[in-house]
């Protein structure tokens, strides 16, 4: 253990408080002179509070554009938050090599995240050598060990990424991350591009690695089934905000937020045959001009006046179960109850 | 849009300024035009007098300053050789060059696009392969050589077309045009082909590459899945999308076509600006060279402007970004 | 944990670049031709019957002899005839090829390195330096290149070195633009972010990760620019600038023979022209195929 | 049972390339009645899309349909002249592709792309066609359809584009629609919306539907029957309940087993070892044998399709019993 | 009947007094009279002046004919002549002025409307020859006209065999016969005078029937054209000579080095033996035959045979490489030395090719010669400063008599007197300077010719210049036309007639 390790807060892997991130071009001369309308600003993240305990496996779910990747990249130190505080093991993830090494991001598309012109052996050894995790004399064995751990035959070390199948490529990118001896893995849709049979292989790999290496996971996905299988805590995002956050079992048993309930209803299920699909009403609003109040009110079947003006706070609705819905404050209470019968 | 225009023009002015400095310096370093211009029996006194008349006896900086001042007043000086305002001289000759360049461009599109389309749509047919390989030839042949071959074949041996010169012209808007008379057209064919050869190859290749790129895209497949007629697919879905790179490249190429007209013009004795500029460089006729480059750069800016506008028209994505 | 070894995608499906290159018959023809020509150029002093640059070796009395003629002394056969100076054309072509290829390859390599470096610097630095470099590039690209070449050569004087210098000055902009554009595109790709995630320093990412991925299009441009440079040199020679007459390049041989085209002494410019043509076609064929096999899409 | 609308018999589609000949689809047969929904399932590269394109007549050189028949009503589509095939395409048979971002031409307005689809098959005035296009958009649940007609694709979200594509495919009320993973790239909520709309059309108009996917659970909800493809062949085929509840092919069983929803959270998922074989040189015999736990020496030969009860076909020498009470898997 | 001529020399303007350029001259000949005419065959002929005489060594009286009229109907008078000579001196924008032709003129007086009296500063026997190069424009139009007015046609009130129709700069001049012309009536109704710079293009234009006559036929095409029965070649000895000028600069010159490349501390060219060696090493016949393909005649002095001042005693320079080698070693250069010869690439036909052939010959006697071809724009400046070791000049002896070249290329360079302007090698020989001075004031033609012939001997014994060959003037035409030389190498419609 290095001095660095000892200093850090060892029980919390990730802590985000009030993290906001906006995107948008810097105003040009024309905007400054008010000759042109201001550049549109995208609120990718809007006041995120999130804490992941060490060893946790958090599934982050949300629709496309809800800010999942942005959150993941901020956690991995690849992007700076516009506002708010981020710490990973007690450090700013953008500060320094050591913390960089400890958080690793695994991307959705293994094809795109592997440099097509770099052989596996170099992909796996370059950064560890740079960070002093192995010595040039031992690098062969090191690479072989990483590959074996990720379920790849070390004999493939001289291949280029395109010489692998999709699942194998994802294993390569996992091996590349593991070679950095991380403690925290951010998986951004890491299984979304894979076939179901391959997806199962990779999910199994994640689960066994977690046990072997005592890893913390932030697992981003839009597939609730996957999250349900692997995560022990589920966080739901909608348009840059967290709307629900609960332990997995509790979450699937007692979902609270209307959006979550809608999502759960749409999960395809092998057991449901000749189902009658019900179209969800309303369009997903644009993150450029999110609706005021609760972002979900435009599609929410239970929306009432307060939802249109006031942003609901994330509140405890059960032990360890947070939800951001005004319905919890009303007398009628939790919409879950109402929905249970349906 | 206005800002963009202003920026463009400012850039152009900068380019022209830099250009004129370089040309001024360069021409000064090559030699004195007096040595070129004077009759061989001219005496040293004649020489000194001429140099004084042309203002070449002054320090270079002062010469440049004088040029700059009068340029700002719209006077780019008189040609040393022709004793005519340089701009007048260029404007007299430029239409002939432009006419040639545009004809070449026209031919390039006329032949290049259909051939390229064919080669792209049927890459494995022998004709498609032939077109592709043939287009390499168009790249490889030095144009002066082709020019002479054209003359030898079509003028000298077959007597089909005239070998040189511009033929009969008609004056419209104060400018002489060849394409309005039969004789003028006949004179234009060979030089235009000569100049167009490289462009035709270029257009063929661009079109072909574009078709090959666009063809497997889902939206073309979807267009076919809609049951559209092949003609409509080619025109609306394939061509429309290829036009974007094509217009960009052709815009840039029009400039180089004007420049490369130097070669064609000297082979076909085409009385255009290319020949003039070549002679002027040889004669160190600085005002003409500077004015020519100025006019050409201005032309370039205009062409780029047109290309940008076309681009906006062709690609809605750009249009919206610009509006935002 | 299972090790998936049995079912890797067979390598055959994605054969090596060279193997894939060789699958196109026209490209093979081009490659063979190019190899032959380069061989001829490299070993010109060994192969050529005469040193066409040595004035003592050539005799004006042998000027314009038909292909297959013997020289005055009868100890030398001019297989491709002689030019207006009595130079053995075969030798002149071999040496000329040397000059032309030197000009072409030399200018392309120098301009390529210079342009790529500047392009990467522009992409990497952004801001003012980027704007500055790109404006210079715009300026160069918006100038009529051949006229600038004429001016430059009039200023610098003839010579292989000066021609190369001129071409470099004109051509680097193309590489800079492509390199910058490509670097910007590549820079947005996931693998770059992945490399950042691995904590690698920016410069290393730029040079070892992004640059290799920018190279294929640059290589293709370079191959085409070699051809372009050779033709441009020929054109400049035709216009009276270019390389010295006593050390003719292919282009100059063609240009010199140009005056004999109408007089029936076709060989003086025909054979050099043919060689020039073959060389450029060969380069283009190879470049075309390179473009295909190096296309990143074929890897991705 | 009504007369089949579409009957595919022993379809064989292949691609020739520098690397060799690739049999993307071999010996594929199935039939489809009006109003019926067939789910075509399989891993990436198993030949699902190629099957769809073969029916559409959209196989381009170097690809070709090397054998078999595609009977649509009473006509063999493989023999149809190009012009007649064109008139069927988009009119009687329509197709929607996977990637919503790419199916629409970026430089043409949505309206233009829809109107041309109508005018390719019918002599309709522009205004009338436009009105139809607008209605079709509205039916897909797109707000302010009139304005959307003048939008460019890039001005729309992915879900909206995909709905435009589906609306376009449905414009001429086709008898058959082939949906090639049209919802894979979309969020669940939008997926449900699209499924709802497609479902309504099959119900109301008697439109037949081929839904292509790699995810069994998606089609469990809408399909009447399922065909599972592996390496270009259909390995199991039958009624949705039969295939899912009385699974007989080890591969199908593997697919079901690897779905996260089917195992207890946190437990290891049953997985199929290895990866999809290359079709350029597929394994000898049953293409699945290298990954199959039930492999026997016999499997080095190609198994013949074996029809069981209620047309439940399987192509396997060692099929599972099909008894739901004893779940057997490939691992 | 119409005639189309394709000509080679560029025209800078159709203002006849702007520039003393070959192309301008050719054009002006059609439109403008001169006071005295000149013909290649037969020297001076009457022009506007039917007769002229010296009243004393410095006074000339010209009697103008009275039937000459301008195209606007006004008669041509002595005022026009006086005006024209004045204008020729100070026409604005001239870069190659006609001044030198009037260098000796002191004043021009109008005695009566048809008599002009010209006084010279010193006796000038060749004044009429010089005046034959200056065109007379009309005073009443010319007084207010600028060069632009001539170019636009506004001031083209002419009095020549042809009248102006149109001028397209860089392309062509159209003209029609002037029926009021006082001289011989012309054959052609209309003449189209087209500028075709490239020699191959000219030949092609003739072969394709675009034009009827071309001038300055490329020597490489002569044979083809001669063999072609659809065209006819007209080739005549010309007055332009191609000469090498060795540098007489005593300073070390970077273009003359020893065989190792070190500059020699003494210029070997100062040694007459070396010059003789170089002169003898050249096989002029071979050059004329192989390089010039018969388009030239061997030059042994600066004037061709049968011209005023040609010395038949110097009709031969022996080709003797062995003798040359011996001379070299006598001079102290048994191993030879290295020399770079400069030649303009865009000025004299086949000059680079000729230079290379010479270089071959010199290299064989041990003088390893490099040829550097440079654009004339660069060449002229450097040559003028005597920077080159060996330069080449093509000299047009337009006046067809020997002193013209002597004044410009042989006389000791003297800025004050305007002598030796093109003496690029700075050759200086007092004997020649004396001869030139004597000839310049000698009115007796026979005596003058003798002086010039002596000068030839002086220069050629001294090898002050190395003459190479005289260019022939070559035209080609349709077979039914006849082209005769008229005024040196000028090309005019008047030269072309129908063949019987
Ligand atoms: N670099 C960027 N510049 C501008 N906008 C961005 C940038 N990155 C993300 N955004 C915007 O921020 C919002 C959130 O994006 P993000 O990628 O985090 O969403 P996501 O939840 O990961 O979606 P998906 O499921 O599609 O991956 C989106 O509207 C997106 O368009
Ligand atoms: N145009 C083509 N040229 C060559 N091979 C092709 C072509 N189109 C498809 N193939 C090959 O045919 C096989 C089947 O492809 P197909 O697209 O039908 O798979 P799929 O089942 O739709 O897969 P996915 O789920 O990835 O869409 C693949 O191996 C593919 O590589
Ligand atoms: Mg994302
Ligand atoms: Mg598919």
From TrEMBL, chain A:
Under the heading InterPro entries, the entry gives:
AAA+_ATPase, ABC_transp_ATP-bind, ABC_transporter-like_ATP-bd, ABC_transporter-like_CS, Oligopep_ABC_C, P-loop_NTPase
Q: Which residues form the ABC transporter domain?
A: 14-264
In the bilayer, the protein is annotated as: Peripheral membrane protein
Q: Name one GO cellular component term.
A: plasma membrane
Pfam families, A to Z: ABC_tran, oligo_HPY
Compartments, as annotated in UniProt: Cell inner membrane
Primary subcellular site in the record, as a coarse category: membrane
Q: Which residues cross the membrane?
A: none
Q: What is this protein called?
A: ABC transporter ATP-binding protein
Species? Paracoccus suum
Q: What is the lineage of its organism?
A: Bacteria, Pseudomonadati, Pseudomonadota, Alphaproteobacteria, Rhodobacterales
Automatic annotation (TrEMBL), chain B:
Annotated transmembrane regions: 12-31, 100-121, 142-161, 188-207, 242-268, 288-311
Q: Matching InterPro entries, A to Z?
A: BPD_transp_1_N, MetI-like, MetI-like_sf
Q: Does the record bear Transmembrane helix in its keywords?
A: yes
Domain (ABC transmembrane type-1) spans 94-311
Q: Which Gene3D superfamilies match?
A: MetI-like (1.10.3720.10)
The family database entries (PANTHER family) matched by this protein are listed as: ABC TRANSPORTER PERMEASE PROTEIN, DIPEPTIDE TRANSPORT SYSTEM PERMEASE PROTEIN DPPB-RELATED
Identify its protein family. Answer: Belongs to the binding-protein-dependent transport system permease family.
Q: What is the name attached to this protein's record?
A: ABC transporter permease
Q: Which organism is it from?
A: Paracoccus suum
TrEMBL record, chain C:
Where are the coiled-coil regions?
A: none
Q: Cellular component GO terms, alphabetically? A: plasma membrane
At the top level of its lineage, which domain of life is listed?
Bacteria
* CDD domains named among the record's database cross-references: TM_PBP2
The record's keywords, sorted A to Z, are: Cell membrane, Membrane, Transmembrane, Transmembrane helix, Transport
- Identify the residues that the record assigns to the ABC transmembrane type-1 domain, covering every copy: 97-287
Stated name of the protein: ABC transporter permease
Origin species, per record, is Paracoccus suum
Tell me the lineage of the source organism: Bacteria, Pseudomonadati, Pseudomonadota, Alphaproteobacteria, Rhodobacterales
Automatic annotation (TrEMBL), chain D:
In alphabetical order, the GO MF annotations are: ATP binding; ATP hydrolysis activity
Membrane-protein topology: Peripheral membrane protein
| Keyword Amino-acid biosynthesis assigned | no
Sorted alphabetically, the Gene Ontology BP terms of this entry are: peptide transport; transmembrane transport
Annotated signal peptide: none
Read off the CDD domains from this record: ABC_NikE_OppD_transporters (cd03257)
InterPro entries named among the record's database cross-references: AAA+_ATPase (IPR003593), ABC_Ni/Peptide_Import (IPR050388), ABC_transporter-like_ATP-bd (IPR003439), ABC_transporter-like_CS (IPR017871), Oligopep_ABC_C (IPR013563), P-loop_NTPase (IPR027417)
One Pfam family here = ABC_tran
Its localization reads: Cell inner membrane
Q: Where does the protein principally reside?
A: membrane
Give the highest taxon in the source lineage.
Bacteria
Q: Which residues form the ABC transporter domain?
A: 6-256
The UniProt record lists the keyword Acyltransferase: no
Alphabetized PROSITE patterns for the sequence: ABC_TRANSPORTER_1, ABC_TRANSPORTER_2
Keywords (alphabetical) are:
ATP-binding, Cell membrane, Membrane, Nucleotide-binding, Transport
Its cellular-component GO annotations read: plasma membrane
Q: What family, per the record? A: Belongs to the ABC transporter superfamily.
For this entry, the protein name equals: ABC transporter ATP-binding protein
Species of provenance: Paracoccus suum
């Amino acid at each position: 253990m290095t001095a660095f390790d000892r200093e850090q807060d060892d029980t919390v892997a990730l802590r985000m408080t009030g993290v906001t991130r906006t995107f948008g071009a810097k105003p040009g001369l024309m905007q400054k002179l008010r000759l042109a309308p201001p550049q549109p600003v995208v609120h990718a993240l809007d006041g995120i509070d999130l804490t992941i305990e060490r060893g946790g496996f958090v599934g982050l779910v949300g629709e496309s554009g809800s800010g999942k990747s942005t959150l993941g990249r901020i956690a991995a130190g690849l992007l700076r938050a516009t506002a708010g505080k981020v710490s990973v093991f007690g450090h700013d993830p953008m500060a320094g090599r050591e913390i960089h090494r400890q958080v690793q991001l695994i991307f959705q598309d293994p094809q795109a995240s592997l440099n097509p012109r770099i052989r596996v052996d170099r992909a796996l050894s370059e950064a560890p050598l740079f960070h002093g995790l192995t010595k040039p004399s031992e690098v062969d064995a090191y690479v072989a060990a990483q590959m074996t751990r990720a379920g790849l035959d070390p004999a493939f070390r001289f291949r280029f990424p395109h010489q692998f199948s999709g699942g194998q490529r994802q294993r390569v990118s996992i091996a590349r991350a593991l070679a950095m001896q991380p403690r925290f893995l951010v998986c951004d849709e890491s299984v979304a591009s894979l076939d179901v049979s391959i997806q199962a292989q990779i999910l199994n790999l994640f689960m066994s690695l977690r046990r072997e290496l005592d890893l913390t996971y932030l697992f981003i996905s839009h597939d609730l089934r996957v999250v349900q299988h692997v995560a022990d805590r589920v966080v739901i995002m909608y348009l840059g905000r967290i709307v629900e956050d609960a332990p997995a079992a509790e979450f699937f048993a007692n979902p609270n937020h209307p959006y979550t309930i809608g999502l759960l209803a749409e999960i395809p299920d092998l057991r449901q045959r000749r189902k009658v699909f019900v179209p969800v009403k309303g369009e997903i609003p644009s993150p450029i001009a999110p609706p005021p109040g609760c972002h979900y009110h435009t599609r929410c079947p239970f929306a009432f006046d307060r939802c249109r003006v006031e942003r609901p706070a994330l509140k405890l609705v059960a032990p360890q179960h947070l939800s951001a819905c005004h319905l919890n404050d009303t007398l009628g209470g939790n919409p879950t109850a109402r929905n249970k019968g349906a | 849009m206005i800002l963009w225009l202003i920026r463009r023009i400012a850039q152009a002015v900068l380019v022209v300024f830099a250009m004129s400095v370089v040309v001024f310096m360069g021409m000064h370093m090559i030699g004195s035009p007096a040595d070129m211009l004077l009759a061989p029996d001219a005496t040293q006194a004649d020489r000194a007098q001429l140099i004084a008349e042309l203002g070449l006896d002054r320090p270079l900086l002062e010469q440049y300053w004088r040029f700059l001042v009068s340029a700002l007043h719209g006077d780019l000086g008189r040609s040393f050789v022709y004793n005519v305002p340089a701009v007048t001289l260029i404007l007299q000759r430029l239409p002939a060059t432009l006419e040639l360049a545009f004809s070449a461009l026209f031919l390039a599109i006329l032949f290049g696009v259909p051939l390229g389309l064919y080669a792209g749509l049927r890459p494995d047919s022998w004709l498609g392969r032939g077109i592709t390989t043939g287009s390499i030839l168009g790249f490889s042949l030095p144009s002066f050589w082709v020019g002479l071959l054209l003359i030898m074949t079509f003028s000298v041996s077959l007597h089909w077309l005239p070998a040189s010169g511009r033929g009969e012209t008609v004056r419209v808007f104060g400018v002489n045009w060849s394409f309005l008379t039969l004789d003028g057209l006949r004179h234009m064919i060979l030089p235009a082909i000569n100049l167009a050869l490289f462009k035709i190859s270029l257009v063929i290749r661009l079109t072909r590459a574009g078709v090959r790129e666009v063809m497997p895209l889902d939206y073309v497949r979807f267009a076919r899945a809609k049951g559209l007629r092949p003609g409509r697919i080619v025109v609306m879905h394939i061509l429309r999308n290829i036009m974007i790179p094509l217009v960009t490249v052709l815009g840039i190429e029009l400039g180089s076509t004007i420049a490369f007209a130097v070669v064609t013009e000297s082979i076909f004795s085409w009385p255009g600006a290319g020949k003039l500029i070549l002679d002027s460089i040889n004669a160190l006729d600085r005002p003409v060279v500077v004015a020519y480059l100025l006019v050409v750069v201005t032309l370039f800016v205009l062409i780029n402007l047109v290309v940008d506008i076309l681009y906006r028209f062709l690609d809605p994505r750009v249009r919206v970004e610009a509006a935002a | 944990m299972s090790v998936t070894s049995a079912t890797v995608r067979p390598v055959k499906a994605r054969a090596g670049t060279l193997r894939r290159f060789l699958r196109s018959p026209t490209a093979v023809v081009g490659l063979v031709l190019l190899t032959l020509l380069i061989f001829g150029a490299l070993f010109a002093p060994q192969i050529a019957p005469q040193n066409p640059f040595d004035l003592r070796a050539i005799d004006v009395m042998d000027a314009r002899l038909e292909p297959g003629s013997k020289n005055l002394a009868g100890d030398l056969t001019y297989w491709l005839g002689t030019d207006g100076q009595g130079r053995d054309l075969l030798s002149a072509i071999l040496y000329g090829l040397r000059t032309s290829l030197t000009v072409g390859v030399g200018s392309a390599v120098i301009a390529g390195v210079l342009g790529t470096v500047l392009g990467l610097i522009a992409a990497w630095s952004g801001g003012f330096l980027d704007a500055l470099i790109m404006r210079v590039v715009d300026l160069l690209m918006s100038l009529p290149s051949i006229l600038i070449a004429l001016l430059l050569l009039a200023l610098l004087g003839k010579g292989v070195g000066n021609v190369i210098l001129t071409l470099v000055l004109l051509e680097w902009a193309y590489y800079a633009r492509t390199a910058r554009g490509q670097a910007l595109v590549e820079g947005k790709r996931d693998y770059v972010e992945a490399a950042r995630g691995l904590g690698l320093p920016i410069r290393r990412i730029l040079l070892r990760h992004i640059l290799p991925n920018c190279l294929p299009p640059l290589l293709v441009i370079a191959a085409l620019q070699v051809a372009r440079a050779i033709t441009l040199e020929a054109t400049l020679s035709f216009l009276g600038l270019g390389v010295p007459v006593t050390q003719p390049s292919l282009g100059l041989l063609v240009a010199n023979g140009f005056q004999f085209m109408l007089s029936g002494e076709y060989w003086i410019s025909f054979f050099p022209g043919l060689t020039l043509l073959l060389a450029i076609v060969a380069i283009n064929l190879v470049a075309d195929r390179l473009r295909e096999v190096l296309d990143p899409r074929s890897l991705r | 049972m009504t007369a089949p609308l579409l009957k595919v018999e022993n379809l064989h589609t292949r691609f020739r390339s520098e690397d060799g000949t690739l049999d993307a689809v071999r010996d594929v047969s199935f039939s489809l009645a009006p109003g019926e929904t067939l789910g075509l399932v399989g891993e990436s590269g198993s030949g699902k899309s190629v099957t769809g394109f073969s029916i559409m007549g959209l196989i381009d050189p170097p690809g070709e349909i090397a054998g078999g028949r595609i009977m649509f009503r009473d006509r063999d589509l493989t023999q149809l002249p190009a012009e007649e095939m064109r008139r069927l395409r988009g009119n009687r048979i329509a197709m929607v592709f996977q990637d919503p971002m790419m199916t629409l031409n970026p430089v043409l307005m949505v309206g233009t792309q829809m109107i041309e689809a109508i005018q390719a098959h019918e002599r309709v005035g522009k205004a009338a066609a436009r009105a139809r296009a607008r209605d079709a958009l509205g039916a897909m649940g797109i707000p302010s359809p009139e304005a959307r007609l003048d939008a460019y694709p890039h001005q729309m979200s992915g879900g909206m584009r995909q709905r435009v594509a589906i609306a376009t495919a449905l414009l001429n009320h086709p008898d058959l629609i082939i949906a090639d993973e049209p919802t894979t790239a979309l969020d669940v909520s939008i997926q449900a919306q699209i499924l709802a709309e497609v479902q309504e059309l099959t119900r109301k108009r008697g439109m037949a539907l081929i839904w292509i996917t790699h995810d069994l659970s998606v089609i469990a909800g809408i399909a009447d029957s399922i065909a599972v493809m592996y390496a270009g062949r259909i390995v199991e085929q039958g009624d949705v309940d039969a295939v899912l509840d009385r699974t007989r092919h080890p591969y199908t069983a593997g697919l079901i087993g690897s779905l996260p929803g089917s195992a207890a959270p946190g437990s290891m998922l049953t997985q199929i070892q290895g990866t999809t074989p290359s079709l350029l040189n597929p394994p000898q015999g049953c293409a699945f044998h290298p990954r199959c736990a039930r492999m026997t020496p016999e499997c080095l030969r190609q198994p013949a399709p074996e029809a069981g009860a209620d047309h439940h076909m399987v192509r396997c020498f060692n099929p599972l019993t099909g008894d739901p009470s004893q779940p057997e898997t490939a691992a | 009947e119409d005639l189309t001529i394709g000509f080679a020399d560029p025209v800078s303007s159709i203002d006849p007094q702007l520039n003393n350029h070959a192309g301008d001259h050719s054009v002006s000949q059609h439109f403008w009279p001169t006071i005295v005419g000149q013909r290649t065959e037969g020297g001076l002929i009457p022009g506007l002046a039917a007769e002229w005489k010296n009243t004393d060594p410095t006074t000339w009286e010209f009697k103008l004919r009275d039937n000459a009229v301008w195209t606007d109907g006004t008669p041509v008078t002595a005022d026009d002549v006086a005006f024209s000579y004045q204008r020729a001196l100070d026409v604005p924008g001239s870069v190659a002025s006609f001044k030198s032709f009037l260098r000796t003129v002191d004043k021009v007086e109008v005695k009566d409307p048809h008599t002009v009296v010209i006084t010279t500063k010193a006796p000038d026997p060749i004044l009429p020859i010089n005046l034959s190069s200056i065109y007379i424009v009309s005073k009443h139009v010319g007084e207010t006209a600028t060069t632009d007015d001539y170019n636009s046609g506004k001031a083209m009130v002419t009095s020549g065999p042809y009248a102006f129709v149109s001028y397209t700069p860089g392309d062509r001049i159209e003209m029609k016969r002037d029926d009021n012309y006082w001289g011989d009536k012309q054959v052609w109704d209309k003449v189209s005078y087209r500028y075709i710079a490239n020699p191959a293009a000219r030949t092609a234009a003739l072969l394709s029937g675009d034009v009827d006559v071309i001038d300055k036929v490329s020597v490489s095409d002569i044979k083809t054209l001669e063999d072609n029965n659809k065209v006819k070649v007209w080739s005549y000895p010309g007055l332009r000579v191609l000469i090498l000028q060795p540098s007489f600069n005593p300073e070390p010159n970077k273009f003359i080095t020893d065989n190792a490349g070190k500059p020699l501390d003494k210029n070997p060219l100062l040694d007459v033996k070396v010059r003789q060696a170089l002169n003898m090493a050249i096989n002029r016949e071979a050059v004329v035959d192989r390089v010039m393909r018969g388009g030239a005649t061997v030059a042994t002095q600066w004037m061709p045979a049968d011209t005023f001042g040609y010395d038949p005693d110097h009709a031969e320079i022996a080709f003797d490489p062995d003798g040359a080698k011996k001379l070299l070693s006598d001079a102290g250069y048994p191993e030879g030395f290295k020399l770079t010869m400069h030649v303009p690439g865009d000025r004299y036909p086949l000059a680079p090719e000729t230079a290379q052939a010479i270089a071959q010959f010199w290299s064989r006697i041990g003088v390893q010669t490099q040829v550097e071809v440079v654009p004339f724009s660069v060449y002229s400046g450097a040559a003028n400063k005597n920077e080159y070791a060996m330069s080449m000049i093509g000299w047009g002896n337009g006046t067809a008599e020997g002193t013209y070249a002597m004044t410009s290329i042989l006389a000791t360079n003297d800025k004050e007197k305007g002598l030796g302007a093109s003496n690029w090698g700075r050759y200086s020989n007092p004997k020649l300077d004396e001869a030139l001075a004597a000839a310049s004031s000698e009115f007796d033609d026979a005596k003058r010719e003798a002086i010039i012939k002596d000068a030839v001997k002086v220069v050629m014994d001294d090898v002050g210049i190395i003459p190479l060959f005289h260019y022939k003037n070559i035209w080609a035409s349709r077979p039914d036309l006849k082209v005769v030389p008229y005024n040196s190498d000028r090309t005019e419609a008047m030269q072309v007639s129908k063949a019987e």
